[in-house]
Amino acid sequence: MAQPLAVASRVESLASSGIASIPKEYVRPQEELISIVDVFEDEKKIDEGPQIPTVDLKSLNSEDPAEREKCREELKKAAMEWGVMHLVNHGISDDLIERVKAAGKTFFDLPIEEKEKYANDQASGKIAGYGSKLANNASGQLEWEDYFFHLIYPEGKRDLSMWPKTPADYTEVTSEYARQLRSLATRVFSALSLGLGLEEGRLEKEVGGVEELLMQMKINYYPKCPQPDLALGVEAHTDVSSLTFILHNMVPGLQAFQDGKWVTAKCVPNSIIMHIGDTVEILSNGKYKSILHRGLVNKEKVRISWAVFCEPPKEKIILKPLPELVTETEPARYPPRTFAQHIQYKLFRKTQEGALLTK
């Protein structure tokens, strides 16, 4: 009897098996290989060329209107020009962030058979839990990562039975981080709304508000790779979310595609990386940018990242450019779709692209 794919295909198992070359399913197409670089060498060169911006949020709630405005303008500029940024002075304590990272690392340090107790079942639509990428395009391409995926907010919609029991403080620290991140998301949505000339609560309301906006956490575990020049941890994509907030273990890997080049994100201490997602790009009629990005791997260090996707409800809201941002000279750039329809549209496009690659 064939071994179930979920157990057979953990990347961590492959990485620790002593292989010198990676299976062909992990080797990227030739047109991608030419742009894959040594991430440590590339990070050393980061003073050359454009850099992912750092936005200091210290003055976002300042009592001085001029300071507040200056901070909002910086956030707006980064959202329009890049769609990705390092947030510093974001209001979430270094101690809490370190505890979140320690909890996730402790889970991934468990033996694989322990982690398998939390395995998801993608075939039946159960995506929460411990998993690995299954090929979802015609080229059968795989990514060099395992992950743990779960909804972390609102608290009433969580399924704590699927959350790791080890370490013992996993639920406590992840729940507190979710609450504080939810508050940060509100502050960012407010600033981005004002940047578009809207009422400050508008964008948050359009993505579900306090009741309906979902926060999904995906802990990405990228094992050491014997041939990092041939693989990707995460292939190039834009996030479907409204906003995505990312922590990492200070091992470089994230790249953003800007002005025709892949730019390696530097490791900024005590920062949270934030992406503008497709949802906010659509609502802003393209004024804010959902940037193409990917994850590199390396042969020296395990990389772990904690991505939290702020998502609208799948069916309840029709996503389309806000009427105030649509004019004769700037017509709507995106057709109306539910969030679920947008996800399906992207999967369909990806499948088509994969089919073309295999012809």
Automatic annotation (TrEMBL):
Every Fe2OG dioxygenase domain range: 213-312
Cofactor: L-ascorbate
Keywords, in A-Z order: Dioxygenase, Flavonoid biosynthesis, Iron, Metal-binding, Oxidoreductase, Vitamin C
A GO biological process held by the record: flavonoid biosynthetic process
Coiled coil: none
InterPro entries, per database record: DIOX_N (IPR026992), IPNS-like_FE2OG_OXY (IPR044861), IPNS-like_sf (IPR027443), Oxoglu/Fe-dep_dioxygenase_dom (IPR005123), Plant_2OG-oxidoreductases (IPR050295)
SUPFAM superfamilies for this protein: Clavaminate synthase-like
GO molecular function: dioxygenase activity; L-ascorbic acid binding; metal ion binding
Domain of life the protein comes from: Eukaryota
Family, similarity comment: Belongs to the iron/ascorbate-dependent oxidoreductase family.
The protein, known as: Anthocyanidin synthase 1
UniProt source species: Nelumbo nucifera (Sacred lotus)
